[in-house]
Design goal:
37% of the residues lie in helices and 17% in strands. With 102 residues, the protein is α+β, with helices and mostly antiparallel strands.
Length: 102
């Protein structure tokens, strides 16, 4: 019984960091109902569905995104070079904050 409990706790600890990284952007505020609103709502619901069901895929880039790639706030990309980095857009423009992935 003790081994099962330790295995479950170890599994939770190992899977917690990747799950925390899979967050979706804040949904837009809907002020009126028209066809555009339903399109935006469908996009938000699809993002939620993809994150919940593990279907979120990150872009893998080989060129440093800082200064050359525009993005939305919170968008994540994987910078694949000799030192792999996870980069998240910080300002909705070209500023990316990166951390090494080991």
């Amino acid at each position: 019984m003790r081994r099962i409990l330790i295995g479950v706790l170890a599994g939770m600890v190992l899977t917690a960091p990747p799950l925390g990284a899979l967050r979706f952007a804040r949904p837009p505020t809907f002020t009126e109902w028209n066809s555009n609103t339903f399109t935006q709502l469908n996009d938000v619901l699809l993002q939620i569905y993809n994150v919940v069901n593990g279907r979120y895929q990150m872009d893998i880039v080989t060129v440093d995104p800082d200064g050359s790639r525009r993005g939305k706030i919170g968008e994540a990309v994987f910078f694949d070079t000799g030192t792999d980095q996870l980069c998240v857009n910080a300002d909705g423009g070209t500023t990316w904050k990166c951390v090494n992935v080991t």
